[in-house]
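A reminder from the course coordinator: this example appears on the midterm review sheet, so study it carefully.

Given structure:
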């Protein structure tokens, strides 16, 4: 071990006290972080549930939009193929 600097006192704590101090510091930090984003107080639990619900709805809307776009593209392609076949086989009274 390196020798201690004369100006830096060495502090020792029992493991239990250290863990308790770290736990309190973590809890304070978490509360401060929640307060910074406006999720503190009695309604915080309900606010978080609503946020999760909104995110689920957004993900469902995105998935549905992509599915709809694929269906529209597929339907358009099939209609174009059918129109091409109808013209090719002169189904509409052409020459």
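Designed residues:
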């Amino acid at each position: 071990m390196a020798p201690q600097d004369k100006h830096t006192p060495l502090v020792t704590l029992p493991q239990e006290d250290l863990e308790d101090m770290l736990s309190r510091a973590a809890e304070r930090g978490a509360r401060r972080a929640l307060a910074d984003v406006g999720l503190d107080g009695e309604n915080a639990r309900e606010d978080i549930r609503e946020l999760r619900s909104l995110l689920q709805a957004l993900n469902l809307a995105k998935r549905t939009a992509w599915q709809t776009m694929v269906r529209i593209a597929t339907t358009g392609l099939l209609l174009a193929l059918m129109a091409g076949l109808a013209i090719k086989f002169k189904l509409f009274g052409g020459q």
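The longest helix spans residues 44-88. The chain is about 70% helix and 0% strand.
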